[in-house]
Amino acid sequence: MNQDAVAEYFQKNKPEYVVLAAAKVGGIHANNTYPAEFIYQNLTIQNNIIHQSWRQKITNLIFLGSSCIYPKSCDQPIREEYLMTGPLEPTNSPYALAKIAGVEMCWSYNRQYGTRFIPVMPTNLYGPNDNFDLETSHVLPALIRKFHEAKTKNMGEVVVWGTGTPKREFLHVDDLADACLFLLESDLLGNGQGKPLFNIGAGKEISIRDLAYMIKRLVGFKGEIVFDDSKPDGTPRKLLDISRMDSLGWQANIGLERGIKETYQWFLTV
Question: Where are the strands (E) in 59-139, listed by range?
Fold first, then answer.
């Protein structure tokens, strides 16, 4: 967030590669409550890191965006070329617009300076070290915490936001890390000048209802699930087309049930 501090860090440490994962993130509630922070902080982070990467003559950078950059009602699965072809989901448009600006910034530096800055758009992420705060977390870690606390307190029910009908795709963070290394070690752009964009996902989706029942089973909660349809659902469906990464020879390896089990075991240790 601090331009001078970022410049000092780059000058002192002289990194060879940059993976820009820093961001202000959160679920529907956080995006609705703090829209100014979401657009300001993300734009500031991107501007500082990407510009300093160029100033320090770093040519290899991965910029992590989000699948929410795509239009709310675009065809499924979502292809990279659907970017900016329709209106965004209103609940997270400040965040999405910041990330779209980051994509364009990478392309602009590639075009003008010959860098190899690669924007990648991961689907919904989860795993160890996730944010489990019920006010600011995404749906999967929030559900893990809700069901765990309900189990330990012998509660009779867990309330889940929305109707449960929206579908989401989930990717384990270890798979994303593997994909980033894969792209950094490739020579996709040669001498720069490119406008790359890569979706990174698992290629499978699950309804929020089915996800809730899966987490309930894996956590061991015995009560009921109540879906609160007075709360927003968000985008109806968000499945990424991952054919570009698949054509390069990369695929996710960690299945959702295994990943949730491992994430819950980690959650129990903190």
Answer: 60-64, 116-122, 124-126
pLDDT in tens, 140-155: 999 999 999 999 999 9
Catalytic residue, candidates 17, 82, 95, 264: 95
pLDDT at 235: 75
Per residue in 166-187, pLDDT tens?
999 999 999 999 999 999 988 7
Q: Which domains does the chain have, with CATH numbers?
A: 10-267 (3.40.50.720)
| Nearest-10 crossing angle of helices 256-267, 208-219 | 50
What is the enclosing helix (H) or strand (E) of 228?
A: strand 224-228
**If DSSP codes are grouped into helix, strand and coil, which group holds residue 172?**
strand
17 belongs to the catalytic site? no
Q: What is the pTM of this model?
A: 0.89
- Whole-number Å distance between alpha carbons of 33 and 30: 5
